[in-house]
């Protein structure tokens, strides 16, 4: 099988690439390295079935040929991370909305229509309740800068649906909830790698807001397994499907757990959102997926608990702190 991964040097993209190379498939990754890191593909970049193209999707001269070659496309190229989203919303529009449409235009021109996975986000739910795929979406207030990301991912889904209905492109639209695991960086605001670095260095563990907000964290290796199941499930085509873990934990409890597993002397401190992000910010109090669609369509089962992932990440950080 021939697989194209946009954003292939990113956190999830690099794990997808490694997974499919291990299964004997050919993989092409394209990444402009804006937020992706070349270090993420070091383990397999010399693999005989792997090709890396350092370029922007919007200007990539080999896009049409590679799309025509591919059997499956995972589109993950995007601006990600709250710090980046808040301070460069125009890049979010270019990297998320315009790039997605550009990719689908190229797919439409190809004779063979590859299965196309447009990776969306739980951010499309805003502060909606229930968080199942049929939920009404509440994305206001639109004046908050971080809404740019939510709306960009929802727009990607709308573009995907349009090409599915009008052009018969087999599109799958997974909504990925909070994902953690090896290779994730805290540089752009991701909470778990930031907590682990702070705890392992005995620095203050910084909780934004009051810490009562809850999240559910899914190991990236489970996310990859779920995505693989979806591309092999014809009934998933033309659907938005939540992927994540439905076990909730408060950010305060996450900080305590990280501190405990790290044997850390860190203190836990709370920082107001205005100080953390430097702009008006309204957090979502709860984010936990309804997984009924995923579990109905596939045989998916979680293999990693939060505790197992945290212990694994802490061990890896202590072995190589510069990669944290």
From TrEMBL:
Keywords: Decarboxylase, Lyase, NAD
CC cofactor: NAD(+)
Pfam family of the protein (one): Epimerase
Any Gene Ontology biological process: D-xylose metabolic process
InterPro entries listed in its UniProt record: Epimerase_deHydtase (IPR001509), NAD(P)-bd_dom_sf (IPR036291), UXS-like (IPR044516)
Sequence ranges assigned to domain NAD-dependent epimerase/dehydratase in this UniProt record: 3-244
A molecular function (GO) term: NAD+ binding
GO cellular component assignments: cytoplasm
Entries under PANTHER family matching the protein: UDP-GLUCURONIC ACID DECARBOXYLASE 1 (PTHR43078:SF6), UDP-GLUCURONIC ACID DECARBOXYLASE-RELATED (PTHR43078)
Protein name in the entry: NAD dependent epimerase/dehydratase family protein
Organism expressing this protein natively: Legionella quinlivanii
């Amino acid at each position: 099988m021939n697989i194209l991964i946009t954003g292939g040097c990113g956190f999830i993209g690099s794990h997808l690439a490694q997974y499919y190379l291990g299964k004997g498939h050919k993989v092409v990754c394209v990444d402009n390295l804006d937020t992706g890191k070349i270090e993420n593909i070091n383990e397999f970049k010399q693999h005989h079935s792997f090709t890396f193209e350092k370029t922007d999707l919007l200007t990539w001269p080999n896009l049409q040929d590679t799309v025509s070659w591919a059997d499956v496309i995972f589109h993950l190229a995007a601006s990600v991370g709250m710090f980046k989203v808040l301070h460069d919303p125009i890049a979010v529009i270019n990297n998320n909305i315009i790039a997605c449409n550009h990719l689908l235009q190229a797919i439409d021109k190809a004779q063979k229509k590859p299965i196309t996975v447009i990776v969306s986000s739980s951010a499309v739910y805003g502060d909606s309740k229930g968080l199942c795929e049929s939920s009404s979406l509440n994305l206001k207030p639109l004046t908050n800068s971080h809404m740019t990301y939510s709306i960009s991912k929802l727009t990607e889904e709308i573009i995907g649906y349009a090409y599915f209905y009008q052009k018969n492109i087999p599109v799958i639209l997974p909504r990925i909830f909070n994902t953690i695991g090896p290779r994730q960086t805290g540089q752009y605001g991701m909470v778990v790698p930031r907590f682990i670095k702070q705890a392992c260095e005995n620095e203050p563990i910084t909780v934004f807001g009051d810490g009562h907000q809850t999240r559910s964290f899914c190991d990236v290796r489970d996310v990859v397994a779920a995505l693989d199941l979806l591309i092999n499930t014809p009934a998933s085509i033309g659907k938005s499907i939540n992927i994540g873990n439905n076990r909730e934990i408060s950010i305060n409890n996450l900080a305590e757990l990280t501190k405990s597993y790290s044997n850390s002397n860190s203190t836990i401190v709370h920082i107001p959102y205005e100080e953390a992000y430097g702009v008006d910010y309204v957090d979502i109090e709860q984010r936990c997926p309804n997984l009924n669609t995923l579990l109905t369509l596939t045989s998916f089962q979680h293999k990693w608990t939060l505790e197992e992932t945290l212990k694994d990440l802490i061990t890896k950080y202590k072995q190589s702190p510069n990669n944290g």
